[in-house]
Amino acid sequence: MRVLVIEDERRLAQIIKRGLVEEGYAADLAFDGEEGKFLAETEDYDLIILDLMLPKIDGLEICRELRSKGIKTAILILTAKTTLDDKVAGLNSGADDYLTKPFAFLELSARVAALIRRNHRIAKPVLTTKDLTLDPAKHSVRRGGRKIKLTPKEFAILELLLARRGEVVSRTVLTEHVWDYNFDGMSNVVDVFVASLRKKIGDTGKKRIIQTVHGIGYQINDNDET
Predict the structure, then answer these.
(1) Range in 67-81, 132-146, 168-182, 186-200 the model is least confident about
(2) How do residues 210-219 score in pLDDT, each as one tens digit?
(3) Domain residue ranges in the chain
(4) Quick check: helix, strand or coil at residue 115?
(5) Which CATH superfamily is domain 2-122 in?
(6) Which of 24, 19, 22, 38 is nearest to 6 (CA)?
(7) Do 142 and 148 form a contact (C-beta atoms < 8 A)?
């Protein structure tokens, strides 16, 4: 899961990012409204945490513009504005939830998880290939009825491959989906995670579900090809 944090208080933004990463999320940071709006429009996120009082472009305008462009990414407003009118304005601009500062990270984490679960139930069906099933809403994976425990990044890789079943998914696309904006795309960490994922789902024989496309990336193989 990938989260964008748009927050001009750099120390707070770093604290939020550290907490999210510890819980298995990939997190990008933007410290002003202009950069945040650009990332929100050009990158694929599961959730945006959005401050209202931002330099260059304020949070309400960002929220309204994203919704006007059909971007449906869940938005959690995080702000020091605490009046009822402020909350109503935030929600009316298209935000999905509103949390005021100061806040406990435990509550922020719970709201992030709830918003992502809700959006997945609405937009993401259960994904299957052969006897392998991935349920985004329940965050569960099964093969042949056996429950498989994956790390958050392994789960995100498998989810993307299943969602694009039949397509070749490049390593670049995988890194952008699973890791943050500053990830070193030249690293072989994607291959390491795919190898671990294959081992956990029992995909180690000649006829693999996850096929390597040499020099490009990976794809889900629904057929019986090697």
Answers:
(1) 168-182
(2) 998 988 899 9
(3) 2-122, 127-220
(4) helix
(5) Response regulator (3.40.50.2300)
(6) 38
(7) yes
